[in-house]
Amino acid sequence: MKPLIQTYLFFLLSLVMACTKKQEKTLVAVENITESVYASGIVKSKNQYQVFSSVSGLIQHIFVTEGDILKIGDPIIEVVNKAAQFNTDNARIAANFNALDANTEKLTELKINIDLSKIKKENDSLQYERQRSLWDQKIGSQNEFEQRELAFKNSSAAYKANILRSTELQKQLYFAAQQSKKILQISTTNSNDFIVRSNINGKVYDLPKKQGEMVNPQTILAVVGDDKDFILELQIDEYDIAKIKLGQKIFISMDSYKGQVFEAQVNKIYPIMNDRLRSFKVEAQFATKPPTLYPNLTVEANIVIQTKEKALIIPSDYLIDDTYVLTKNKQKVKVQIGLKDYQKVEILSGIIANDVIYKPQ
Question: Alpha-carbon distance 292 to 68, whole Å?
Fold first, then answer.
């Protein structure tokens, strides 16, 4: 029986202590309150972008290291592709073979044929005219006249055919030369793509690949961005995005600068929601910023929606179901709330300044 008595006494003592414990209370105060939207995000270098190669291949040379300063057009990485080099060499050979200068013998041969056929045509023309004059005088035979006429017509047709062949050959040679030259230009341009260059004046922040590794157009080769100017990239919950406007003030806290608060303002709202995160991306510009920043530093932000002075304020944990408070006689009183932050809530009606309210248990 003794253990049972001890258990009973312990329960009775606990009940007495619970009954005698005082319920927390506070006064309704008049203070300023600021409504804000919470957001998390990262620091990014302005114009920061991921560097890709437009071709596949092997990393032959890396021209930079992390932290290097770049100018537009500076080389970052060279990718080598033997097959592409062979294609360029073949295109150069074809361009040289099809060049007009390399086909002068064909054109010369055709010119000789044209000259010879012209001479033959002129000679056959003279023989034809002579035979026709004789035939008009009834000298000679009709057969001789017709043979001279046929020979003249054949030589005239051969002369015209040689001229047409010469014109057609020149067109073909010109087309082949231009086509080969263009293919060489394309191949040379593609080979220039094997040297990946910077698109901006900035700094190299990351080089995830090593020399000798295989890469393709989906492989991130580097991260490059501005070396002095930084922005904030924040994620806003879909329930809060309608409250966000351009120019709103933001208070920033960072793990890298414990206890310090920096200011920024909203300068861009991206109009599409991330389906996976159910959030919107907002870009902000520092108004006051830390002395040293690096890409991908994490931040917590409070975007100021509106501020109200001399408002009736109570702690948010004294509110019951966003509708009631407990007054000094422990009765539930209905209230209307206004602005809210993470610790306080504005009361628009239901209680007045200096009223005593109790914290729900």
Answer: 17
